[in-house]
Amino acid sequence: MDFQSTVAKLSAPVKDLVLSVTQNGSVHLGKGEKDAREVIEWIAKIDESKLAAEAELKTLDTHLVPRTYLVSNYLTAADVALYGALHPTIAKLQPTQYFAHPSVTRYFDHIQACKPVRTAADALAPAFAPVAFDFKDAPRVERKVEAPKKKDKKVPDAAEAGTSKAAAPLAEAAASAPAEGKAQKKEKKEKKKDGAVADEAGSKKKGGAPAKAAAADDGEPVPSMIELRVGHIVDIMKHPDADGLYVEQIDIGEETGPRTVVSGLVNYIPIEQMRDKYLVAVCNLKPANMRGVKSFAMVLCATSKDGKDAGIELIQPPANSKPGDRIYFEGAEFEDATPIAQLNPKKKIFETIQPGFITLESKEAAWVNPATKTVHRIRTREGVCMAPTLVGASLS
């Protein structure tokens, strides 16, 4: 199964679109053998006749929840083929219908806006005319987290439990237990708690790596106390009760799913430039309520040295970054340090460190030690985090 023969099986307009964007080299067939094979497999299983079915869209929507692209983290011919095959169906949907498949809608809108796709699609008009979505009135996305179940150790009252009267003496006996018995139970409980703490410190993370205990927040604030991670905006809307705020769903590689994050960027960065972006997230701030929506992280931005009205930009992680990738500060004293589990707002650790955050002449994000003037660039293993255009900008 090769690329050309697989694409040849697509219908005329979709086939023409895929060939157009791949023949000029503007879209990848896959970086490496594994990706190339996956691209061909995706194109081969795109059945245009079935994509209009509700069940098919639901399955695709579930698959796209954590993804920007079908293969890896870049645009491929598989995305072009899927966009072309979806177009007739998506173009006919009413708002209530496309909002029922938010991940498909978000994905389709992103792919149709990619420059090589848009250029080729416009040349094949009217087959792939742009589809407009009413994102302004999109329903609010709820982030549901199931509360952990606790075992109820309370001895039930006979009448409450609906059991026989024989159970009543048990409850009465438990209530009249001697004080020393309660003390013994408390002592056992505390021993168990202490043992659990020791066990947690010596336990192993998933995959066998030893778990690192969270750093203490005593002593002089240092930048490595701040936990920075690569984040990916998988959904965004305007705050329902605040004109200047966005509410984003940001994937930072956690099993619990994306975090809800509120950012005051509406007046500085258009929503179209926020969608699907990779960014730097500050992950260990204490969650805060922002006009009725709880925010679980902060988006790190560069603000022009001439003020907010002169420009604000998202700090961007290096290419090939993945949600959850660790971001750290260069320097032997910082690179292997473990961040604090959650910053204590009363100790103002972030506020103390923040004045040293800046973009260098190279536009690289860094922290400059105010005492020694040493420069510690902010980076992942793949490279240094950057501002798109701003030099000498403050980061916050």
From TrEMBL:
Keywords: RNA-binding, tRNA-binding. InterPro entries: Arc1-like_N (IPR053836), Glutathione-S-Trfase_C-like (IPR010987), Glutathione-S-Trfase_C_sf (IPR036282), NA-bd_OB-fold (IPR012340), tRNA-bd_dom (IPR002547), Tyrosine-tRNA_ligase_regulator (IPR051270). Residues 144-157 have a biased composition (Basic and acidic residues). Residues 1-133 form the GST C-terminal domain. GO terms for cellular component: methionyl glutamyl tRNA synthetase complex. Residues 144-220 are annotated as: Disordered. Residues 158-181 have a biased composition (Low complexity). GO terms for molecular function: tRNA binding. It holds the Pfam family tRNA_bind. Residues 222-328 form the TRNA-binding domain. The keyword RNA-binding applies. This is Nucleic acid-binding protein. It comes from Mycena rosella (Pink bonnet).
